Each structure stands twice: as C-alpha cells, then as structure tokens.
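User: Run a structure prediction on this.
Assistant: Running it now.
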Amino acid sequence: MPTDSPTAARGGSRDDRSRGPVDGPDPSPRSRPIVALLLGVEALLLASAATYCFIAVAGGGLHARLGIGLGVFLLLFALLLALAARSILLRGRFGLGWGVTWQLFQALVGASMLNASMYWQGVLALILAIALFVMLTRLVHSTPLPQGVRRGD
C-alpha cells in the first residue's frame, strides 16, 4: 500500500516515529543549567587570564602589544562563551555549536599546557573540555532546530 509519507519514501516505516519526538524534552531537566554554569566558569577563567595579561603589561612583565592583544583576544572569547551559556539556557543552537567547537580548542590548549609542564592548569582545562563536550553533545537532540528545518532530511 503506497503512502505519501517521507518516512516511507526513504524505506522506513511509520513505526520509526515511535521513538519519541526529535525535539523533545531535555534528557535531564537540570542538564542545561549545569552546562551553562560550566561555560560561565570557563568564561570567568578566560576573563581572569585577560586581567592577568593587562596587569602584567602595567607591571612591565609583558610586552605592551603582546599583553594587550592577548588580553583583548581572551576577553572576546570570554564574551562568546558567556553568550553560548545564555544560548544553552534559552535552548538556542548557537551555544551548542560554539560550545562544542570551543571544547575542542580547549582540549588542544590543555594538552599543550601539560606538554609545557603546566600540570594543574592543563588537567583543569582537559577535565572541563571533556566533561562539557560530553554534556553538550547530549543536549543536541533536545534542542529545537530553526523554523523550517527538519532532522534527517
């Protein structure tokens, strides 16, 4: 019996829909605030590193162009992480994409810190990166897509 269903046209059946809604409720109601909090902690850590750069420039510990440039760069990424945390709380897509991408960069930086004998900093960066990467990927299926976009097409 032919049907006009897109699921049937792809070789599937209507029973594929019994798995539940694609953009359904969060897997855990507390996961979004925890993810947003951890992204906020990362933003605060970046802002504190930027503050250290500015203080080091003022104290003569860093060359002015390097310290100011690095400080502004870190503040920009701290702002983007804060926006990602807000997006996660509002079930937006920006926070997921930016958050996952940032965790990949942070894991790379954390591994480089370990290589440079910055052990506790590198371990902290890696733990945060791995934990947030896993938590963010779990939120992907419970975050609604923009209007007009369907999953699986």
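Residues 31-59 form the longest helix (29 residues).
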